[in-house]
Design brief:
The protein is an alpha+beta fold. The chain contains 4 helices and 3 strands; from the N terminus they run H-E-H-H-E-E-H.
Length: 97
């Protein structure tokens, strides 16, 4: 499930394999191309579907550069989610303040 019954985004989208890794990758490589994500994270045939799920949940934007290359960026919501994930990691590491 990726959305609530009323169509709102659902946190469970992050349970899918590689979703959190993708968000961190895009944070570190803002404006990257799909091919870079595929190359650096996973070549699973489902990866385009995973990116579409992140986009439909308002976490990333998929656009084109000069109509040729596909670029991917975090939305404001995506940045907030990544920030919260980073805070959670700090708690897990015992480095939160």
């Amino acid at each position: 499930m990726t959305n609530h019954a009323d169509g709102r985004p659902d946190i469970r989208v992050l349970e899918e394999r590689h979703m959190i890794s993708v968000l961190f990758y895009i944070r570190d490589h803002e404006g990257c191309m799909k091919s870079e994500i595929y190359r650096d994270l996973s070549r699973t045939p489902r990866f385009p579907e995973k990116l579409n799920l992140l986009e439909s949940n308002g976490l990333i934007e998929i656009g084109s550069i000069h109509g040729r290359f596909t670029s991917i960026s975090l939305t404001d919501r995506g940045r907030k989610v990544v920030d919260l994930l980073m805070q959670m990691q700090a708690v897990m590491d015992g480095t939160d303040t």
